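seq as requested:
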Amino acid sequence: MAKTTQFHSAAALDIAARLGDRLRRARKSQRRTLADLEQSSRIHRQTLARLEHGDPTVSFGVVLIVLEALGQLADLEMLVGNPESVRPLVSDDTDSLNRDF
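struct tokens:
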């Protein structure tokens, strides 16, 4: 199926637009231009602009590269649920769990 004929729900399009806006704000808060981000991510600035404008056909690999280049991978870590990287380690002591309240 060609990219231009892929179906995207309104919810998916909204998320793509919000992700693009968030990436644009992160880039601008770092005072970086698309040209700067192009150099550090090695992703063409036209693709970066499409991503920032919410184009849902930009590949997930590109999204990962841009998140990493902007130092934003931790947000994705929370989404995918890697407890070792986002939550403090819990003590092995379970005595407190066995108490009657």
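The CA atoms of residues 10 and 84 lie 34 Å apart.
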